[in-house]
Write a structure and sequence with these properties.
By secondary structure, this protein is mainly α. The protein is built from 21 helices and 2 strands.
């Protein structure tokens, strides 16, 4: 995308984060005391680089209708910004304002440069004048909101961003900034709405997704804290704590919390499912089976409960109990590769080799590049050898090795990525003023 197109799209309220070079850089958040610090929201570099990209995208075609002097002032300002000469850019745009005092674009561009220089109050004044001249000037309200936020005038920033969204409800940048400001203002529940709407417009923006995740996490933490205040010993609080322990892989602690929840709420199948999952992660299969059996007893038509108990039976070697449950599950929930895998294992153990092969082949077909496919190919290789079908056994073994090698490569790349991230984090310096 050329510079002119980016600028035109910006003026139309359609600029995307990926269009502005360096948009995701930075790593600092402005505190209530006005100082910058490293924090959850990467604000300083975000604003600085974003504005450089926007201002540097000024094109002479935007002012062709103006006098040559005005056009020259715009072009000098854009050139100065590209070369990092902010003071010269400010002078050029001030010249443009003097030459064309009723031109809203001139005041907008001056405001952007002033904001780039950290002169938030002057930037706000310039942008307000631009809006006064043209109340629907694309992106003007958004930039006003950004600079008001930088000046710690959050309520005014939110009002300005709301004005932008009334003009252009699908402005992903304005929605993102709305979420950022609401989150900084201590309103994570409002921020999630803005971030969710922005994510519908730019679903692959990693910067946005990070903010969105933080907002939702904050809402969850606030909800959990409120639950604990209302009744710290409720079964709901124990359930939430169990889930948090499970996420941290503190499975023994999670089991204790699930047991505490069940002591108060003995008819909830979800609690028994969670308990069974934690026992299974610790390879305590008999305890897992008991929990899953209770889950199925409370929810007899639940296909997930059928799978949980049936697959655990297969792991325990009780194939006669597990196979019927897996068959019943697959009648209700077709196309489940992991259930087909366990069914294939159970059928093979019962000597029903042809049926087992069909089930394992279905598992592979439904999810051909997964961990379950790798395991299914391994079982198929063994099964086909037993069935005296060497060509198919060789094919299955080849696919197993292919998937295993691909997984090893992904794991190695992940380790390298983490090492690079650690090195980059260790090398980060303090924010510049």
């Amino acid at each position: 995308m050329g510079a002119e197109e980016v600028w035109l799209r910006t003026r139309a309220g359609e600029v995307r984060s990926e269009d502005c070079a360096g948009h995701r850089d930075g790593g600092y958040v402005r505190g209530d005391d006005g100082s910058w610090r490293r924090g959850a929201m990467r604000m300083k570099g975000y604003v600085r680089r974003w504005l450089v990209a926007v201002v540097c995208c000024i094109s002479g075609s935007m002012v062709m209708a103006q006098t040559g002097a005005v056009q020259g002032a715009f072009q000098r300002g854009a050139a100065a910004m590209r070369e990092g000469r902010s003071a010269d850019a400010e002078k050029a745009f001030r010249d443009a304002v003097k030459l064309a005092p009723d031109l809203a674009d001139a005041h907008l561009d001056l405001g952007l440069v002033l904001g780039r220089e950290g002169k938030q109050e002057e930037a706000v004044a310039a942008l307000r004048r631009a809006i006064e001249l043209d109340p629907k000037l694309p992106s003007a309200h958004m930039f006003l909101g950004v600079f008001l936020y930088q000046a710690n005038r959050r309520d005014e920033a939110i009002a300005a961003l709301n004005q932008e969204l009334q003009i252009d409800p699908k402005n992903g940048e304005a929605l993102t900034w709305m979420g950022i400001v609401e989150l900084a203002a201590g309103h994570p529940e409002r921020a999630t709405g803005a971030f969710d709407r922005a994510a519908e417009i730019t679903p692959n923006d990693l910067n946005l997704l990070e903010y969105r995740g933080k907002a939702h996490s904050q809402v969850a933490r606030d909800s959990y804290a409120r639950m604990a205040q209302i009744n710290p010993n409720s079964w709901q609080v124990h359930k939430v704590q169990a889930e948090l322990y499970a996420d941290e892989e503190r499975h023994a602690d999670a089991i204790k919390e699930y047991q505490a929840a069940i002591a108060q709420e003995q008819r909830n199948p979800d609690l028994y499912e969670g308990l069974g999952d934690e026992y299974r992660k610790l390879n305590q299969l008999e305890q897992a089976k008991q929990a899953y059996a209770k889950e199925l007893d409370l929810s007899p038509q639940n296909p997930i409960a059928m799978y949980n108990l049936g697959s655990t039976d297969v792991d325990l070697g009780d194939h006669a109990a597990g196979v019927p449950l897996l068959h019943a599950m697959l009648e209700r929930y077709r196309g489940a590769p992991v259930a087909e895998y366990y069914l294939g294992r159970g059928l093979a153990a019962e000597g029903r080799e042809a049926e087992a092969a069909e089930s394992l082949e279905r598992s592979v077909k439904n999810d051909p590049e997964s961990e379950i496919a790798k395991r299914s190919y391994y079982e198929l290789a063994r099964l086909y050898r037993k069935m005296q079908r060497p060509a198919e056994a060789e094919r299955a073994l080849h696919e197993y090795n292919r998937l295993r090698e691909a997984q090893d490569k992904r794991n190695a790349e992940k380790v390298q990525d983490w090492r690079k991230l650690g090195a980059a984090t260790a090398g980060e310096g303090k924010p510049s003023s």
